[in-house]
């Protein structure tokens, strides 16, 4: 990791992927991804960003749908896995290793798939991340978010209580869905729920 990467994360993500020590991985498509796909939530999207992609199979899933897919991670091992997986599937995506918070797309994108990035970064970086989302997304663009619910202090993963999330993603900049959010229990994290929400940039 570069000096800035080390400042942004005290966690050695490269070592964890290199040692295959990644208990947060589901090993298959997230059920929320499958639900959103089946219900047509991705149908009007042409481009998407997957920050902190790790070895998530959803990167290939988006590419298979024909979306212009951007994915990044601090771990070179994870990005190499993505590159190999995409090649095996005869798919393409724009991949890069590094701090995506410094990145700006050549043109605004339609969506961001937020599965494991927000809960992995320190809470002090949440405002920086929200500003990056505003920079990446076109007006009307969407964030497909999975907010980790966790009672214990510290992290990663860091808990993303919905009350706090409403502060991070205020309603003057984001349209929140109405009603209760769907809970998706994580099988390898003690059944902790991830709450699914599609936020729309104003």
TrEMBL record:
| GO molecular function per UniProt | methyltransferase activity
Q: Does the keyword Transferase apply?
A: yes
InterPro entries for this protein: SAM-dependent_MTases_sf, TPMT
Q: Which domain of life is it from?
A: Bacteria
Task: Give the record's keywords alphabetically.
Answer: Methyltransferase, S-adenosyl-L-methionine, Transferase
Q: Which residues cross the membrane?
A: none
Q: Which terms under GO biological process does the entry name?
A: methylation
Please give the PROSITE patterns that the UniProt record associates with this protein: SAM_MT_TPMT
Which named protein is this? Methyltransferase domain-containing protein
Q: Which organism is it from?
A: Hyphobacterium vulgare
Instruction: Output the lineage of the source organism.
Output: Bacteria, Pseudomonadati, Pseudomonadota, Alphaproteobacteria, Maricaulales
């Amino acid at each position: 990791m570069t000096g800035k990467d080390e400042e942004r994360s005290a966690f050695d993500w490269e070592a964890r992927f290199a040692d295959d020590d990644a208990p947060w991985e589901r090993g298959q498509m997230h059920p929320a991804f499958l639900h959103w796909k089946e219900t047509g939530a991705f149908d009007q999207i042409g481009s998407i960003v997957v920050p902190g992609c790790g070895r998530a199979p959803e990167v290939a899933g988006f590419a298979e749908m024909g979306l212009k897919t951007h994915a990044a991670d601090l771990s070179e091992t994870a990005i190499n896995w993505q590159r190999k997986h995409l090649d095996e599937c005869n798919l393409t995506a724009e991949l890069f290793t590094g701090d995506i918070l410094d990145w700006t797309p050549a043109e605004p994108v339609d969506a961001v798939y937020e599965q494991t990035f927000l809960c992995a970064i320190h809470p002090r970086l949440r405002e920086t991340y929200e500003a990056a989302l505003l920079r990446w997304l076109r007006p009307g663009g969407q964030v497909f978010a999975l907010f980790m619910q966790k009672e214990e202090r510290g992290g990663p993963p860091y808990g993303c209580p919905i009350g706090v999330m409403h502060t991070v993603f205020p309603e003057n900049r984001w349209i929140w869905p109405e009603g209760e959010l769907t809970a998706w229990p994580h099988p390898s994290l003690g059944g902790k729920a991830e709450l699914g929400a599609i936020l729309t940039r104003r």
